[in-house]
Each structure stands twice: as C-alpha cells, then as structure tokens.
Amino acid sequence: MSGFLAIFNPxxxxxxxxxxxxxxxxxxxxxxxxxxxxxxxxxxxxxMNSVDSISMLLALYFGGVSGGLIASVLLxxxxxxxxxxxxxxxxxxxxxxxxxxxxxxxxxxxxxGNLFGVACMAFIAPQIASFARQFGPCEYAAVIFFALTLIxxxxxxxxxxxxxxxxxxxLFAMVGVAPMDNVKRFTFGSANLxxxxxxxxxxxxxxxxxxxxxxxxxARKGNGKQAExxxxxxxxxxxxKEFVQQIPNTIIACVVGLGIGILPGIGASSANIIAYxxxxxxxxxxxxxxxxxxxxxxxxxxxNNACCGGTLIPLISLGIPGDACTAILLGGLMIHxxxxxxxxxxxNGDLINAMIGALMIASILIFVLQMGATKFFVKMLGLPxxxxxxxxxCLCVVGAFTNNSRIFxxxxxxxxxxxxxxxxxxKIPAAPFMLGFVLxxxxxxxxxxxxxxxxxxxxxFFRRPISAVFIIIGIVSMVWRxxxxxxxxxxxxxxxxS
Amino acid sequence: MKKQARTDxxxxxxxxxxxxxxxxxxxxxxxxxxxGDIGSAFMPxxxxxxxxxxxxxxxxSTLVKMRKQPAADDxxxxxxxxxxxxxxxxxxxxxxxxxxxxxxxxxxxxxxIYLMAQMLIMSPAKKPxxxxxxxxxxxxxxxxxxxxxxxxxxxxxxxxxxxxx
Lengths: 498, 165
Fold this sequence. Notes:
The complex is a heterodimer.
Chain A: H1 2-6, H2 10-28, H3 34-45, H4 50-74, H5 84-95, H6 99-132, H7 137-149, H8 159-173, E1 176-177, E2 184-185, H9 199-221, H10 240-245, H11 247-262, H12 268-282, H13 294-318, H14 324-335, H15 344-347, H16 349-380, H17 385-404, H18 407-425, H19 431-453, H20 460-463, H21 465-497
Antiparallel strand pairs in A: 1-2
Helix pairs in contact in A: 2-3, 2-4, 2-16, 3-4, 3-14, 4-5, 4-6, 4-13, 4-14, 4-16, 5-6, 5-13, 6-11, 6-13, 6-16, 7-19, 7-21, 8-19, 9-17, 9-18, 11-12, 11-13, 12-13, 12-19, 17-18
Chain B: H1 2-26, H2 42-68, H3 75-82, H4 85-105, H5 107-121, H6 130-154
Helix pairs in contact in B: 1-2, 4-5, 5-6
C-alpha cells in the first residue's frame, strides 16, 4: 500500500501529467507513437527515483495509445497502428456528423480498457503469466492462424476480395530478411529492403495518403467536414441504456485486447483489428459495423487500451517485454536496479503497487484531458479542408521519416498510398491487408519454429490442446463464414428469379 | 453493373498477375532448411498460390454474374467522374515531388512549397484572390516552422536541412 501512496506527491503527479500530455500528442500525430515518446523521454528519467521514472514512462505509454483515436476519428487517419480499427466506425460516425459522440465513446472506452488491463495486472498477473508460459511456438502459431482466419470477416460483402487483400498484405510483409534462416526475400539487391517495409509507412500510406488524395476532390468542391458539425452532444456521448447494452461487447473487446497483450510480440497494432473482427463476428448485428456504430468504436478502443495492461503482465511477472515499448520500459526499470520477473512481486512489491497507482491516475488524467479538449479537437475540423489536409499530409511525411530517419520509409508511403488508392477504386477492403501485413512475420516465425522443433510434424498442432482449440475454432469459423456468405450470395439471385 | 464488373475483372487480373510474379520470384529464394523447417520460399509460394486461386475464382464469379445480369449503360457515370481525376492526380504528383525533394532541398523549403501547392490544388476557389494567397503563404510558413521546431527542438528528432544545412 505504501508503494501505491508513494505516487501521491505533487512531483510524481506532475510527471504523470506531463507524460500523459506528451503521450497524447505523440499518439495523435500520425507517424509518431507512444513507443517513440517513451524512447525519447527515457534519458530524462535516469536521474529520477524509480517511482517517478516508471510513473512517467507508463504515463507516456498509456497516453500514446489513447491519443491515437483522435486522428482516427477526426481525420480517418490512424494516429497509431493501435487505432486503425477506430477509423471504420469512429471515422464514419464523425463523417456522419457526430464527431463529439465518436470521441466521447472512444475516450470513455479507452478509460474502461485501461482500467480493465490495470485491474488484471494488479490482481491476476501471476496466474495469467503462468498460463501464458504454457505457450510455445505451436500455440503462438495457432493463435495467429486463428487471427488470420478472421480476415474473411473483414469483407464488405465480397469475401474473395477480402481474402485477396489479406494475401497481398501477407506478401508485402514478406519483403526483407526471412525469419529463422535470415534469407533475403524480394529485396532486389536493395539494402533498404533488407529490413522490409515499416509498419508506420504502410499505415500512413494506406490510410493517410489515400485520404488526402481522395479528399482533394471534396476540398475543391468545398464540401469539407466543417459543414457536417451540427451534431452537439451532452455528457459522454451515449446513454446509460446504450452503456448497459454494450457490456457484452465491451467484455469481449477487453478480454481479446488483454489476451493479445499478454502474448509477447503481437501488441496493440493487432489487438484492435482482431478485437474488432471478433466483436463483429459475435454481434447480433454485424451489418452495423463499418457504418459508424458505437460497437465498432468500443471494440477497437477498449481492446487497444486493455492490451497495454496485458503487455505489462509478462513484463512484471516473467521479465518478458511484450512489444518494443515494454522493452524500453524494461530498460527503464533495470536502470534503477529493478529486475522484472517472478521475484519482482517479492522484492519490489511497493514498486508494482506504485506502477498500478500511476497507471490508474494516468488513465483518469487521459480521460479528463481528452474529454476537456474534445471541443477543441472537433473545432479543428472546422478548418478549411485544403489547409487541414495539406498540413496533415506534411505531418505524415515527417512522421514516416522520423520513425527511422530513413528517406526510404518516406518513399514507401508513396507506394502504399498508390496501392491504397487502387484498392479504394477497385473496392478491395483495406483492413485485411493491414491484418495480413501485421501478422505475417509473427505467424511465419512461430510456425517455422514449431516445424523445426517438432521435425516438420504438422500433427503437433492438433496434439497440443491449446493450439488444437485455436486451429479448430479458426477452421470451423472460416468454413461457417464461407458457407453463410455463399448462401447470402445465392439469396438475392433466388429472390430475383421468383 | 458494368462498372462493378469491370473493377472486379481488373482486381482479379491484378491478383493473378501479382500472385504469379511473386510465385515465380520465390523460385530464386535461397533454401537453407534445418531439421523440419519449411524454408523461406514455402510461405511466399503458398500465399502467392492462394492469391492466384482467389483471383481466378473472382474472375469466374464475375463472368458468371455478367452473364446472368446483362450490363446497363453507364456512360453518364463516366462523364461525371472524368473531371474528378485532376485534383487527385495533381495531389499525388505534388506528393511525389515533395518526397523526392524532401532530403536534397531540405525540410523547410520543400514543406513550404508542398503546402502552398497542395492548398492551391485543393482550393475551392478557381482563382484565389491575392489576399487568400497571402494568407495561405502565412499559414504554410507558420506550419512549416512550427513542425520543424517541434520535431527538431522539442522532440529532438532531426529533419533534413538540405541546401540550408
């Protein structure tokens, strides 16, 4: 308890506030992320005590993930890879004239996701971590296989196009050095291609550049978004009845987000899409998804924030960082002589309590700050579209460049912008491409590791219970979706004939 | 229907050609198998093969649909859409130029040029007044300097200085 109370001093609270603000700014600017914010601010924390240091770093991390929703909702450009799925309903709701409501829902469910993740970290971290320890390469590959089968749910009616899009995403992610044997693939002798395409470049190109190019026509016509800002809301943007109705959806999103977060390596960039598709599949009204419904925003925002708490569980329980950001946090802890792992609960119990307290305060501050600034955020949409989109495009180019200080990443946004624009014109959904691109490397790594470990025996995936469950669920749900899609396709034809 | 069928045929053709190209290129990937490992060429070949299959399926289903539902005339749609390509094309060209001069010319100059050009391309007014142009120039300058100092000074992230360096 003393550790929890240690954060309640003005200095620590101020550091959490600063961390949250910087994190939100980094999250809101497309191309920048919470990871960058944590990496940049890490040197400033060297001279602080361990509680102040980790409190500020955690605030930056949570702020970065939560800030991503602002650009996703208002500009239809993901602020971070973790908020891509927010575009599909949050962006649509804003486009339909309800940006306040979209932001209100997103901000509130970010808080719920954050608190859910923190609560799990506080109460069941050791138990969850011991379950996660049962995961070997087979289980990882099976979970990712299951996530890949969800691609068929991301179609806007045309499953074949969704699957083609997913395959294209997988193939583009294969560029560079292959996992396991480090063999170069599709690099054409270019050293820049050895490390493949950066996720940030793909995301900016696919969503931001496509949006700017497509928005040029609207801007010229003068029908920018400022004409659609009539819908003002009170409170959080939703009613108590809606909140109650959304409880099952929220639970699914939080659990999926937490589950993905616990598995090291996958992270919020996949969690939001996987949770979105899972919630859509479980929904009684899947047709509402993508039209600007509350369910879709909750699925994305609750999951990506719950994922943050999830990534911290293997970090503190096992000493395994879940993603790049938690790897930097691990470094931050070790600088202060704290070694995360099973003994951390015994040796540094007070620090864990302080971390939990800092995360709770940071989550509440994020909520208050974002809610307070909603009016200001929405006012930005009132800017003439030719000015707003031009500056956004410029920020995207800068974001892509500063990711690795590599001009090649900026060229890559042009490539993905062109592909994204072609996809839009050919009515091919972008979401499966994103999912395929994000998951390919993880899937191939774990699948090949499993094959190498078990001498190429494919039956191992069915002999291990956890992997068997995920593979069977994946195959069954995919077949079920293919069949129901084929039935739906036949129905209009039959109706037409009668 | 005709337009939809046309886009579907293009999509299927692109999928088949792209899949076939990747499949063929995968043949030159070095194979270094150890134990039960599948090698680095397996996954690209598998996914490319699936992509070709999906492309063929899409092509067949589109052709079947076209047979069942005779094409409607959509020349009016074509006429309306033809002029909309100009700002889109100019925006993309402007972006290409920006990206190409970003490093050699430097952030400050290239961004100012890009912002001015993009604001003009997207301008609702056919002939912006000189006052409007001056306002955009001021906005471009402020945004340019603000982004530069935010990234280089506040975030300590270097941006190309180019000819000003």
